[in-house]
Amino acid sequence: MLQQRHLLGIQGLSKAGITSILDLAEQYATQNRSSQKHSAALSGMTQVNMFFEASTRTQSSFEIAGKRLGADVMNMQMAASSITKGETLIDTAMTLNAMHPDLLVVRHPHSGAVALLAEKVNCAVLNAGDGRHEHPTQALLDALTIRRAKGRLHRLTIAICGDIAHSRVARSNLLLLGKMENRLRLVGPRTLMPGGIAELGVEVTDDMEAGLKGADVVMMLRLQRERMDGGFIPSEREYYHRWGLDAAKLAHAKPDAIVMHPGPMNRGVEIDGVLADDINRSVIQEQVEMGVAVRMAAMDLLARGLRARPSGVYV
After folding, report:
1. Model pTM?
2. CB–CB of 161/208 below 8 Å?
3. Please, are residues 13 and 293 in contact by the beta-carbon 8 Å criterion?
4. Chain segment 122-162, per-residue pLDDT in tens
5. Which string of b and e fits 196-212 if b means at least 16 CB within 10 Å?
6. Looking at residue 298, what DSSP letter applies?
């Protein structure tokens, strides 16, 4: 059981809380590879997925996770909902309350929107990504993937490369991997680095060779053009030449370094397609697999917290 009622970000999780989610996710990862993938952890509970931003990967992962745990899962079509007719987020929260869901999974383009919803509903809320703020389950699945590949989640050199400024994935990973005492490097063009980032105690460089030198983990990020309103990069071709991951650049990392990407990938822009598919270096497909296991673990632990509280009592 988690101490928190909601999972809104990594910032609110302790090292023990992170470890408890990862340990349970390990069990679900094993279960998901067996012929019996289902359990009754969420039996009798209702899970509502509200995605104000499109995300096939994350939404399908949460849906599969909920169904494998025995929940009744409903996907709300937000593009066709009352929100588009002028209903406020608060009105939507009140409507949801009347339906008495137990778990609410929310993805929203504005930072803080998920936390606002969490204040107004009488159920557990999971943040599936809000603006540039956080994407906690992505960081947790990345952490589980790293731990399985490296046998540990501490004292590693981890390079996070690309569009740092617009990435909630980068923010959540910085928080989680920092808590676990890793050496973190941010690599990318200065135009895609947020102001004051060096104050977080991370190394910052715009040189891929220096950034990848001796790295145990190379995490590439997607160029988020939908969040860009200016000339952040000269061209995709130039971006790939300088910051896209290929075999020559990866050679500066450790020989057993793993390659990660949260998806969806822009092949030939952020990463070479052959390298992305290299089963000896790339763990991108395992990240997808671990996503289901981590989301199962997070919802299971939140559900235990709901059941432990007296009916109608929320703190």
Report:
1. 0.93
2. yes
3. no
4. 999 999 999 999 999 999 999 999 999 999 999 999 999 99
5. eeeeeebebbbebeebb
6. H
